[in-house]
């Protein structure tokens, strides 16, 4: 076995080990180092010196021996040395109280008289801080934020022997980030928060709060995107830096006002035709508003305002697409509801009303934008006449005559309804047809026509229409007179009313027949002493005639269909009034008067011839009227002879009458105007006398009348 080693020195640098140094023993291949504490010991085999025994108890006194070893065995233990292990290192509990302080604490170490704690930046910058204390905690202040510090602590005993040290790396919590900036993306409703990196910060957290709502974003970079922000909200943004030591204080909150929300409660109305009023509710965080109005023809206008309403010019019949945006410094609000507003269709233009009949008017107009349907309303009189059609024309019938109508053509659309602002047009219907109440004769060719006036400010025209032509009279009242109507004519009498609005229908026609015409020519021919023939020309319109000869002595009358008549019982020498009545088929009568008629004077009676001495003959008669002058005519083969008595005498003489001849003797009255009227002379009786010769020139006058002969 090798020799016993000799311990040079033994010492404890760690609380769980003792190191032993000895001189080498020749022939020894190994050494056994033993540390004994009472009944317990710890052995360690080493190759050579020094050797360290581990697994010991701190602050414990051990007996240290060394034995040499080889293949032959082990030597005896060396003389022992007493060595006490150093104090155990304090077990530190380290935390950063703030960004510039670190608190160190530990549990008491057995038999420790004090503690030494040192602190230094791990990167070697700055100076080391060291504190000795008998307490079990201390705080290092005024440190650099976010810096990594190395902390070393050990305890010492009463002899000032330091024990094990304990090293701990601790970082101070970071400082709050600076230069925080918020970039708001209005379109995506998100915010990008950025800041300057702070020393020692490993991560950062961004807190975006609005009332009870909090949004967070964690990142290890110097920026963070916070999505899903709400419009119309004000957020407060703060950034906190974090590391393993803790968190910084939040940065001062940065105000973030998002874009305003889209305006709501949008109302659109036409406060008056041609003007659109767009209004909406006030929007939180809205500084001003822009209203965009785009018409269906592509034209767009807009309005900027800080109030909650805008006025726009509008045209009828257009559809407008309206959107309202709110603005602030953050930008434009999201697109809200797009409203479409269709203005009332335009009022029809080129209005024309043409009467197709008295009670029917055809209304036409030009088509207008936006109209799906047209309504024509005629208001007047006692009611309303309506017409609805998609066409640009309408016929209103059954209108009241002589009535003023306000005709309104309104356009209609399904989107907006009826345009009630269309201006009515005034149209007056033609006058009502008058009703003829009476037709009366005022004279031979004068007819008075009366009617019921049923119009205001109308002129009435009465027309008598017949084969003879047209006759008119005009009045603004209820009657007028037709003058100079021809006799013997049939007419149809009707009346119309005229006004600036037009002409009425004709009234119902009333037949009118004028009295027959009096014959223009009337001739009286005395046929015999007591019979007269009357003849006349045709009286237009007359069917029968009644002729009358009337005198104080009596009357002669004849009713005939012909244009002549024989009247008997005529008294000779009498003045008659001549009258004729022309009678039509319907009994109308015209009384016609003519020049008076005088019948022939009465023939004398008692005509006798007396022979005179000088070959003459005296004709004697008895006068019927002393005032009548007579003339005697003798007609024979040997000559014609006549004589006229002096006034007041009833005989006359004819001298130198040849005898031996037969004479026809007529004594007839004469008028003042001529020597003898053939008209009358044939009425008196003719007597035949024979004048004979008896041996001389004086003969006998024999009357041969009615088979009787007379002679002188």
Give a description of the structure.
The chain folds into eight domains: 9-84, Immunoglobulin-like, CATH 2.60.40; 92-171, Immunoglobulins (Immunoglobulin-like, Sandwich), CATH 2.60.40; 178-257, Sandwich (Immunoglobulin-like); 264-343, Immunoglobulin-like (Sandwich); 352-428, Immunoglobulin-like; 435-513, Immunoglobulins (Immunoglobulin-like); 522-599, Sandwich (Immunoglobulin-like), CATH 2.60.40; 605-704, Immunoglobulin-like (Sandwich), CATH 2.60.40. The protein is built from one helix and 63 strands. The strands form 16 sheets. Strands 3, 4, 6, 7 and 8 form a five-stranded antiparallel beta sheet that branches. Strands 18, 19, 21, 22 and 23 form a five-stranded antiparallel beta sheet that branches. The longest helix is centred in the C-terminal third of the chain and has 4 residues, at 678-681. The radius of gyration is 81 Å and the shape is rod-shaped. This is FNDC7 protein. Residues 1-88, 89-175, 176-261, 262-346, 430-517 form the Fibronectin type-III domain. InterPro entries: FN3_dom, FN3_sf, Ig-like_fold.
Give a concise summary.
1% of the residues lie in helices and 55% in strands. The chain is built from one helix and 63 strands. The longest helix has 4 residues, at 678-681.
Keywords:
5-stranded antiparallel β-sheet; FNDC7 protein; 8 domains; Immunoglobulin-like; 712 residues; mainly beta; Ig-like_fold; 63 strands; 1% helix; FN3_dom; rod-shaped; FN3_sf
The name of the CATH architecture of the largest domain is Sandwich
Number of helices: 1
Distance between the termini: 259 Å
Radius of gyration: 81 Å
Helix content: under 10%
Tell me the name of the CATH class of the largest domain: Mainly Beta
Note the beta-strand portion. Answer: over 45%
The CATH topology of the largest domain: Immunoglobulin-like
Q: Low-confidence segments, ≥5 residues, pLDDT <50?
A: 674-681, 695-700, 704-712
Tally of distinct domains: 8
Structural class: mainly beta
CATH 4th-level superfamily of the largest domain: Immunoglobulins
């Amino acid at each position: 076995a090798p020799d016993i080693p000799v311990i040079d020195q033994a010492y404890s640098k760690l609380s769980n080990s003792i190191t032993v140094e000895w001189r080498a023993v020749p022939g020894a291949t190994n050494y056994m180092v033993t540390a004994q504490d009472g009944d317990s010991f710890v052995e360690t085999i080493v190759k050579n010196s020094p050797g360290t025994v581990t697994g010991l108890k701190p602050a414990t006194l051990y007996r240290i021996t060394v034995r040499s070893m080889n293949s032959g065995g082990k030597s005896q233990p060396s003389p022992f040395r007493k060595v006490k292990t150093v104090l155990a290192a304090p077990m530190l509990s380290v935390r950063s109280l703030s960004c510039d302080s670190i608190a160190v604490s530990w549990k008491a170490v057995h038999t420790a008289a004090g503690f030494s704690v040192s602190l230094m930046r791990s990167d070697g910058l700055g100076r080391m801080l060291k504190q000795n204390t008998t307490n079990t905690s201390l705080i290092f202040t005024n440190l650099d934020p976010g810096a990594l510090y190395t902390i070393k602590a050990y305890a010492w005993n009463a002899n000032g022997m330091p024990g094990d040290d304990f090293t701990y790396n601790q970082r101070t919590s970071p400082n709050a980030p600076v230069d925080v900036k918020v970039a708001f993306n209005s379109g995506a409703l998100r915010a990008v928060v950025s800041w300057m990196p702070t020393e020692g910060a490993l991560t950062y957290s961004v807190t975006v709060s609005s009332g009870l709502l909090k949004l967070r974003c964690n990142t290890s970079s110097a920026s963070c995107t916070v999505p899903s922000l709400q419009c119309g909200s004000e957020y407060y943004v703060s950034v906190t830096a974090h590391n393993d030591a803790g968190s910084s204080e939040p940065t001062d909150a940065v105000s973030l006002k998002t874009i305003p929300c889209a305006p709501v409660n949008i109302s659109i109305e036409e406060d008056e035709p041609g003007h659109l009023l767009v209004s909406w509710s006030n929007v939180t965080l809205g500084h001003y508003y822009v209203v965009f109005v785009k018409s269906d023809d592509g034209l767009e206008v807009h309005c900027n305002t800080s109030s909650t309403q805008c006025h726009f010019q509008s045209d009828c019949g257009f559809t407008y697409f309206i959107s309202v945006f709110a603005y602030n410094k953050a930008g434009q609000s999201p697109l809200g509801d797009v409203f479409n507003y269709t203005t009332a269709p335009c009022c029809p233009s080129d209005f024309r009303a043409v009467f197709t009949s008295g009670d029917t008017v055809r209304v036409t107009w030009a088509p207008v934008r936006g109209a799906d349907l047209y309504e024509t309303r005629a208001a007047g009189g006692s009611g309303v006449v309506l017409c609805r059609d998609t066409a640009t024309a309408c016929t209103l019938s059954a209108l009241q005559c002589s009535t003023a109508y306000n005709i309104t053509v309104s356009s209609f659309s399904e989107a907006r309804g009826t345009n009630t602002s269309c201006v009515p047009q005034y149209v007056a219907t033609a006058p009502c047809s008058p009703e003829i109440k009476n037709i009366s004769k005022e004279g031979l060719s004068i007819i008075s026509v009366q009617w019921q006036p049923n119009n205001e400010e109308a002129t009435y025209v009465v027309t008598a229409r017949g084969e003879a032509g047209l006759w008119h009279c005009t009045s603004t009242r209820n009657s007028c007179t037709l003058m100079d109507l021809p006799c013997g004519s049939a007419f149809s009498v009707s009346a119309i009313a005229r006004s600036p609005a037009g002409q009425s229908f004709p009234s119902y026609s009333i037949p009118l027949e004028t009295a027959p015409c009096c014959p223009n020519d009337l001739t009286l021919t005395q046929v015999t002493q007591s019979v007269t023939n009357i003849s006349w020309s045709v009286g237009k319109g007359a069917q029968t005639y009644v002729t009358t000869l009337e005198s104080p002595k009596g009357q002669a009358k004849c009713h005939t269909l012909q244009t002549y008549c024989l009247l008997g019982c005529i008294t000779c020498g009498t003045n008659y009034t001549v009258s004729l009545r022309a009678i039509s088929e319907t009994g109308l009568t015209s009384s016609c008067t003519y020049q008076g008629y005088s019948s022939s004077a009465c023939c004398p009676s008692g005509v006798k011839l007396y022979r005179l001495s000088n070959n003459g003959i005296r004709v004697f008669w008895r006068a019927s009227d002393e005032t009548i002058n007579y003339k005697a005519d003798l007609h024979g083969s040997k000559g014609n002879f006549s004589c006229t008595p002096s006034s007041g005498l009833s005989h006359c003489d004819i001298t130198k009458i040849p005898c031996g001849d037969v004479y026809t003797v007529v004594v007839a009255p004469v008028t003042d105007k001529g020597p003898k009227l053939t008209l009358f002379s044939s009425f008196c009786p003719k007597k035949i006398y024979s004048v004979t010769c008896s041996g001389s020139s004086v003969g006998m006058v024999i009357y041969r009348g009615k088979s009787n002969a007379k002679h002188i």
